[in-house]
Amino acid sequence: MPTQGKSVEAFADQLMDMLNQGALSLMVSIGHRTGLFDALAELPATTLTQIANHTGLNQRYVKEWLATMVSGGILDYDPQQQHYSLPDSHAALLTRSSSPDNMAVFAQYIGLMGQVEDKVIDCFRLGGGVGYEHYPRFHEVMADDSGQTVLAALDEHILPLIDSLIPSLESGIRVLDIGCGRGRALCHLAARFPNSRFVGYELSEEALDYARNAARQMGLDNLRFEQRDLTGFEKRAEMDEFDLVTAFDAIHDQTTPQSVLNGIHKTLKSGGTFLMQDIRASSHLEKNIDHPIGPLLYTLSTMHCMTVSLSNGGAGLGTMWGEEQALEMLSIAGFDSVAVHQLDHDIQNNFYVMRKA
């Protein structure tokens, strides 16, 4: 819908708030990565020196970070006692112990995307894209993200979306995860369901090294990881190989997403199930204007999802490809009946469930 604009004063206030909140997002990421929020939750009403000593961090940097958090309304400060404290209601959304509600995890994307700003600007002028190799912490951040939206909800919310899946996994089936990253979800499933066999496909060798090491430490012998470039997957997918295929927040990043979906249909056995988690949004901009995290998701699309696909000459679907386009592409792949689920804890994703006829 068209906007009528705002007064200069109102828009100036919006821009000022945007600058402050953007700065706070970066510092919230630092608080998460350094463990400062976790420390403050453990040390209520504490001093600068105590916080620095507890975390082993440089006191001068901690002081400036604390000042940012106090001025941003995230920490409380008692000037008489010079005590800093993290309110319980804030700790519930900013500490590792608060998973899956730890929103500090998502603040990491701001710094990550900022690292490639110059390269993305070059793409604005010249076209093309920015490859995965330019995002050194991408799989680390995605593993954190997965811990919030997938791992924490897998047993109680996601697996029950598919009728009779848990008994089948307990009896023993073959499972493929597309774009498995560091393999946190697969390691969890392989440990819980020892009679089933699991395979993870992933392009990043760094992510695969992490996943394989995690599987070894857990003593899992029913799980393997393979380095796979899924471009043109339908040509190389094994026919009727798997009972269950999963793709958690992976399809829209692919160079050839339609070929990947076609290949998933091909590699599923008759009666097999495909579970796809992907972004909850519309394919039409006007329907996303009131999306609660629309600006963030369109930014992530520009700065990562779309540009990574375009770097390989791909489709460049972008993060906000939307439910309408997803359903159309799934239909082209051969999935005639698709159930779309939404989970209360996850405002970011849809969960698509479909069976191969």
Automatic annotation (TrEMBL):
SUPFAM superfamilies (UniProt xref): S-adenosyl-L-methionine-dependent methyltransferases, Winged helix' DNA-binding domain
Coiled-coil annotated spans: none
Domain Methyltransferase: 170-289
Positions of the S-adenosylmethionine-dependent methyltransferase Rv2258c-like winged HTH domain: 22-96
Signal peptide: none
Top-rank taxon, per record: Bacteria
Name of one Pfam family that matches: Methyltransf_31
InterPro entries: Methyltranfer_dom, SAM-binding_MTase, SAM-dependent_MTases_sf, WH-like_DNA-bd_sf, WH_DNA-bd_sf, WHD_Rv2258c
CDD domains tied to this protein: AdoMet_MTases
Protein's name according to its UniProt entry: Transcriptional regulator
UniProt source species: Candidatus Thiodiazotropha endoloripes
